[in-house]
Design a protein that fits this description.
single chain; 36% helix; 3 helices; 36% strand; 143 residues
């Protein structure tokens, strides 16, 4: 085997390894964001979620992150996420086209005063209609 072929093989193996690493990093990042939106992350993970969103290649404007590839939260396709960390960590997924009762059922929330809500181990998960009649699923982290 000549030197050029060896170099080509080594390059191919390195590229495959880098691609696999990038895919693993994106999968881990998507899992982190999904857990935040599902209210499964404890308090103090805001920076971790920000880094995960950056790993996913989101475009951020005023704490609103847009994903080029949707992630699944309770089986629902999510492409727009709001996060904030003023006095409390809040993670919100906006789900255009979804119906409030569908989101409530998918997340196994309890009906409450026209919305849906559930207290979780780490906070409160709530489905509600927000701006422009878009359904949102929000997690307010408390613990």
């Amino acid at each position: 085997m000549n030197a050029i072929m060896k170099l080509a093989l080594v390059t191919a193996f390195l590229c495959a390894g880098i691609s696999a690493y990038a895919a693993d990093a994106k999968l881990a990042a998507a899992t982190t964001v999904e857990k935040a939106l599902s209210c499964e992350l404890p308090k103090g993970k805001y920076k971790t979620v920000q880094k995960a969103l950056a790993t996913l290649g989101t475009k951020a404007k005023d704490e609103v992150y847009t994903l080029s590839t949707p992630i699944n939260v309770f089986g629902l396709q999510v492409t727009q996420i709001n996060i904030s960390n003023d006095d409390v960590e809040i993670y919100i997924s906006n789900i255009p086209g979804a119906k409030l009762d569908e989101v409530g059922k998918a997340a196994k929330l309890q009906p409450l005063a026209g919305d849906y809500q559930l207290d979780t181990k780490h906070g409160q998960l709530r489905a509600a209609i927000r701006d422009h009649n878009v359904v949102s699923l929000s997690c307010t982290v408390k613990k």
